[in-house]
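Q: What residues go here?
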């Protein structure tokens, strides 16, 4: 992987902005803020935004300086969904069934594999991919004024961003079916979303609340522990017995790890912990325990033939 940036705030992107926390820091901080940034366009989702988010999450995932990530929207809107106006929006003119990869899915899979906790600070309305991109994030905090919509049936398409995998697992099949069958836009306070959002706050308190939580996570938790536990739930082997065997393998590997040692010592010494381990260098031997699937589109004739 290319060398890590000296400053995330200095990276030049078109449809997102990155900030250190605090923004005044000239160098990367334990918490990094990603801002969906399309002023005047309600932060509508584009192929450019998809590529920039995918790249950013992959970089942050490998950066040991980063401990937590917060995602929010510029202005009063989180994300209005896919840009339907053409121009800079989504275009599939040159795609085929074998080469097309949904942009929302590329982003959610980048978040899904990201080794750092991700918090959605949903400061305003989120529709379509605007909400589905948050589903693989660890925590979602939403504005009490936000409108949320899984509107696919009203646009003549289907769920995207792997949301048919994430949504029913987060809120249950019954509520997920209700949301996608009506295609309606609901207030964030609707009971249909009770299991989706960890906290519902006034708009002006959403981002500060998310940043405070991210700071707490960055200062007090092991990034290896949080990522492994995320994978243990999302990528669970399927039965209690298989899960027990997996737990046992991981715990044995971590027992002599430096984060486990630091966690015990800091607790006994009544001092703040300083966790240093990362998934690139300190992952247990059992990880990954699932068969990894390469979802990248073929780029050569040979690769295309291999995937036929």
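A:
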């Amino acid at each position: 992987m290319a060398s890590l940036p000296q400053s995330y705030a200095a990276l030049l992107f078109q449809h997102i902005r990155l900030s250190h926390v605090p923004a005044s820091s000239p160098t990367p901080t334990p918490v990094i803020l990603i801002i969906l940034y399309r002023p005047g366009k309600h932060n509508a989702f584009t192929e450019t935004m998809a590529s920039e988010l995918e790249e950013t999450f992959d970089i942050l995932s490998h950066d040991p300086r980063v401990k937590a990530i917060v995602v929010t929207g510029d202005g009063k809107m989180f994300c209005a969904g896919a840009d339907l106006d053409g121009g800079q929006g989504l275009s599939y003119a040159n795609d085929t069934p074998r080469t097309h990869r949904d942009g929302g899915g590329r982003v959610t899979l980048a978040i899904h594999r990201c080794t750092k906790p991700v918090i959605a600070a949903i400061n305003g309305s989120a529709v379509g991919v605007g909400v589905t991109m948050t589903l693989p994030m660890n925590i979602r905090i939403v504005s009490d004024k936000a409108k949320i919509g899984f509107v696919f049936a009203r646009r003549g398409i289907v769920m995207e961003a792997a949301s048919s995998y994430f949504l029913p697992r987060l809120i249950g099949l019954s509520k997920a079916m209700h949301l996608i069958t009506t295609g309606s836009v609901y207030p964030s306070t609707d009971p249909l979303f009770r299991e989706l959002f960890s906290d519902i706050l006034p708009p002006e308190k959403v981002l500060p609340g998310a940043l405070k939580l991210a700071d707490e996570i960055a200062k007090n938790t092991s990034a290896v522990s949080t990522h492994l536990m995320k994978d243990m739930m999302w990528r669970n082997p399927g039965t209690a017995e298989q899960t027990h065997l997996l737990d046992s393998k991981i715990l044995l590997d971590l027992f002599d790890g430096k984060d486990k040692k630091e966690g015990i010592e800091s607790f006994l010494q009544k001092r703040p912990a300083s966790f240093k381990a990362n998934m690139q260098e300190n992952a247990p031997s059992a990880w990954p325990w699932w068969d990894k699937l390469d979802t990248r589109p073929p780029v050569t004739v040979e690769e295309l033939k291999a995937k036929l």
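A: Context that may help when evaluating the design: The mean pLDDT is 94. The first strand starts at residue 16 and ends at 20.
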